[in-house]
Amino acid sequence: MLPDKTALPIITLSQPTAEVGAQVHRLISKCPPLDPNSMYCNLLQSSHFSETAVAAKIGDELVGFVSGYRIPQRPDTLFVWQVAVGEKARGQGLATRMLKAILARPVNQDINRIETTITPNNKASWALFEGLAKKLDTQIGSAVMFDKTRHFADQHETEMLVKVGPFKAVQA
Predict the structure, then answer these.
(1) Dihedrals φ, ψ of 90, to 5°?
(2) What's the pLDDT score for residue 8?
(3) Strands of the 54-58 sheet, one edge to the other
């Protein structure tokens, strides 16, 4: 019997460490329309905020990364900063899998809401969070958070605040 050439590679998820910060920086640069951050920022996301981030790898290659943090005034809310999925791993539901992996960690069992910002024309991100809301059996809403003119001085598209929740704890 011939090997199945359509078999998908195994993608492993883990809590990131500072050692993946440079790989995160490279991955995000290859995932437009994501805004690039400094490598230092990516190092902090991978270390200080590792409980609310996830790294996805095929072997030693980083193919996905989600960064987020708990909103200080509302620690039951995860703010998702960025979701990056490399070309090699697209179309496999990896973004949803990564978000659910963060929520399923014992340390995050009290998170019952997600917030993020999405530009109006980022269809992939809208589909991701609309699909996640369905999977979590909850509602989704949006409103302007940062306006193109008022906040970005016409240098960036308007960012819509997207709210998902409330939802029940996600099990591993």
Answers:
(1) -75, 155
(2) 77
(3) 12-14, 54-58, 61-71, 74-85, 113-118, 159-164, 140-146
Amino acid letter, 156: H
Rounded to an integer, the average pLDDT of 98-104 is 98
Per-residue model confidence as pLDDT tens digits over 46-69? 999 999 999 999 999 999 999 999
Amino acid at position 4, single letter = D
CA 139, CA 167: separation in Å to the nearest integer? 9
Place of tokens 């958070």: 145
Look-up of token digits 């989704």: 140
What are the structure tokens assigned to 150, written together?
């008022």
Distance from C-alpha of 125 to C-alpha of 142, rounded to nearest angstrom = 13
Angle at 51 between CA 64 and CA 138, to 5 degrees: 75
CATH topology of domain 12-164: Aminopeptidase (3.40.630)
